[in-house]
Amino acid sequence: MNIVNNIFNELMQKNEKKKKIEICEDSDLPKRGWIQGCYSCCIPTSHTYLYENNIVNKYFTFHAYICKDCKNMNILNDNNFKNKLNGYIIDYLD
Ligand SMILES: [Zn+2]
User: Fold this and answer.
1) Domain residue ranges in the chain
2) Cα-to-centroid distance, 64 and ligand 1 (Å)
3) What does the pLDDT look like over 4-43, one tens digit per residue?
4) Which of 3, 12, 24, 84 is a good FRET partner for 93, with 20 to 30 A between their CA atoms?
5) Ligand 1 mean position to 9 CA, how many Å?
6) How far apart are CA 7 and CA 13, in angstroms?
């Protein structure tokens, strides 16, 4: 039984290792709400996307608020937008 508990604890620790950071544009929306300003165009949205980048870190995963229109425009592959996100992340990790 102890072995099962140990494995369970290890799994729990792994899941808790990385803190989820949400990236959104500043807006008048409540900071803790599930709707925030799209990081590209500021329109309120509930859609977030995991941003995979090459900034190596052990502690965080970054999720950007991106509205449907910007997602359809493939904003996550736009270099200017990626630079903006990377800038945010570098500032955050600083
Ligand atoms: Zn947008």
Assistant:
1) 19-93
2) 11
3) 766 666 665 655 678 899 999 988 888 888 999 999 999 9
4) 12
5) 40
6) 10
